[in-house]
Amino acid sequence: MRAGVLDSVSAHLLSDVEVGIFLSAGVDSGAMLGVMRDAGQREIRAITLAFDEFKGTPEDEAPEAARVSAIYGARHIVRRLNAQEFFGDLPTILEAMDQPSIDGVNTWFIAKAAKEAGLKVALSGLGGDELFWRLCKLQDLPHWRRWFGPVRCGTGTRVSFP
User: Fold this and answer.
1) In terms of Cα–Cα distance, which of 102, 93, 106 is closest to 138?
2) How many CA atoms lie within 13 A of 79 on its CB side?
3) Domain segments of the chain: what residues?
4) Backbone dihedral region of 134: left (phi > 0), alpha (psi from -120 to 50 degrees) or beta?
């Protein structure tokens, strides 16, 4: 499996422009960063989306992403997002989205951060959890809701699944 992943990442690194990475605190994007390094990529910019609401809490992914970035020698960029920007962009995000997705909103903001950083191409670990660990699927949301309770939005609004 490792050879296949390395081959795929190597092919995705062939570009006329710099290739960055969307880096969360998760195993999937951290592994992707390691594979990029193994594939010979030397200069890597890693972009992490961090939410002001979570700053200084265990939910803040920026500190762990910074540690992973340092391990692989990537240049780490943290893009903070506040509630005002989130809700300001939300109508445009929903209009642009062709189908609802659990990570579509995060992808919008991390892609926006990459563009602000001057990147045109970035790899992502998105889907790695589902591919390698067979985690959350849309139909599993009611199950996860029973385990973790209602989801809180940035405004404190609670969203429940049936």
Assistant:
1) 102
2) 22
3) 2-137
4) left
* Pairing verdict, β 121-124 and 19-22: parallel
Q: Is the pLDDT of residue 2 over 90?
A: no
User: Domain 2-137 - what CATH class?
Assistant: alpha beta
Sheet strands side by side (includes 45-51): 75-81, 45-51, 19-22, 121-124
- Of 11-20, 22-31, 57-66, 124-133, the one with minimum mean pLDDT is 124-133
pLDDT digit string, tens, across residues 65-119: 999 999 999 999 999 999 999 999 999 998 888 877 767 888 999 999 999 999 9
Q: How far, in Å, CA of 108 to CA of 110, rounded?
A: 6
